[in-house]
Protein: C-type cytochrome biogenesis protein CcmI
Amino acid sequence: MENLAFWAIVGATTLATILLLARCLLTVPPSDLPDETAMSSDMKVYRDQLAELDRDIDRGILSKDDGDRARVEISRRLLEADKTAQARKAGAETPTGLTRATMGIIAIALVAGSFGLYLTIGVPGAPDFGRAKRIALSEEMRQSRPSQDVAEAQMPVWAGPPQDAPADYLKLVEGLRTAVASRPNDPQGLDLLATHEAAIGNLVAARAAMGQLLDIKGETATANDYARHAELMINAAGGFVSPDAEAMLRRALEVAPNHALARFYTGLMFAQNQRPDLAFRLWRRLLEDGPTDAIWWPAIRDQIGDLAVLAGENYTPPAAPMPPVSGLSGPSDEDIEAASSLSGEERAEMIQSMITRLSDRLATEGGTPEEWARLVSVLGVVGDTQRATAIWAEAQTIFATHPEALETVRAAAKQAGIAQ
Structure:
């Protein structure tokens, strides 16, 4: 019944619009000619003047020659008035066939265009939703999401590690699996297994290992642990934020309310559940606060324009940062001076500390391709090819859709002898 009422209103509105256009096209606009009453009065005056002229000639008031000249002038004025009257009458007649055809084309275009546009971008049959109804529908959609297991079951089965993954590295991963299977309560082993399974694209196994690690850590788990688990769950589900992943994000934000990665994925969850307003608020702050080299920063910048439109916001995202002119900066003067006074063992510890800081930052905040390349290079220099291979494999996953960025890291991997 509501459907019929809607189409009746649409039809009536369209018909009214067509009638208004028809009136404009088919009705002759007022002209600059004198109105009909004035023209009739003028013609009557001229006729009366002709009759009076004949009487004046008969009475001898005017000579015949003067009367003839006056008759010619009055007759001329009478003919002019008659022509004007005929012109107005002709202008008021029915429009030409061309005008009718134009009106028909406009009517067809108006009806076809309006209905075509609505059927393309509209939702025929959809009821009107106020704000409260939309929020309620969003919450219903959010509560009815499939679980993590169901979402993962809908994904393609893992096809195996990347073809260019080194055989030695894959052998090490297999050994790690065996070690964790024999020592399932080893936190370090589970942490490494989650990292390396994710690096070769085995996301479900990585998610499972991270889940075991959280069970072991219990109350000692950090915000990074929860956010990392949520990210693995989301990636394993093809980008879908399940209720299970949302629970992990919530735990991360309870521990660290400003955790950037957790806020990013929380915004993604809102966007997936018809709450662009909440997603926009989260992503806008992340985008403006940065850092611009975070792994999520370009993803937000690419999508926030469309999100702003859906949220009813007029927003222009900040410009993308200029790439560094000379790559990454090297160690500071203080670092060099400090390193020169250290023993060989102390210098190695300092280098390892710098590697750890960079590795941790890339894992939690992301970074530029140059930073990933630098980490791979440094690990190759210090002889830690196992970690270098893992970082290279992870970079291939992260920069899979950015060929130029991937080539930057690939060059470093070749230099380290872990890529062809």
Remarks:
- The chain has four domains: 2-121, 147-273, 276-321, 333-415.
- The two ends are 68 Å apart (CA to CA).
